[in-house]
Design goal:
By secondary structure, the protein is mainly β. The protein has one helix at 108-120; strands at 7-9, 13-16, 21-30, 38-47, 50-53, 56-73, 79-96, 126-128, 131-137, 146-151.
Amino acid sequence: MRSGGGKASHGKITFELATRTLTIEDIDVAPAQPLLANVKVAKVTAVGVRQPDEAHFSADSIEASGVEVGFTSTERTTVKANYKIPQISARDFSGPTRAANAPPSGSIIDMYRFMLAQYATVSASSIAVPTVAVNVDAGTGNTGSGDYVYSGSYG
């Protein structure tokens, strides 16, 4: 990502050996490609972390808090969307240790394909997202702008 002009940083990282608990704070990912999402996460805690092989890891549970995702699309008109997710919980998680390389094209179709391919490499017995708040700015006079809130869970 950095070789392509993007930026990624994190704050404090701790690992508790007795419970195999990994905590990472203040994650901030800002890709150089405008169609990829900027991602900020206040804190991720994974309990029961294992690495069955070089390319994968698993955890009994993962909790993420303070998740913010924002992206801007400029294909036909400029549309900005910002997602705020206070809490995400996953149980019996398994996934890759690294994300695949983003596609070189800026096509929205390629970006969706990339995101779906990333999700296809992850499994969990349950994932709960109690609330998602979205702000969409499609520009003055364009339909679709507004604030949207999802409350509930899926597991």
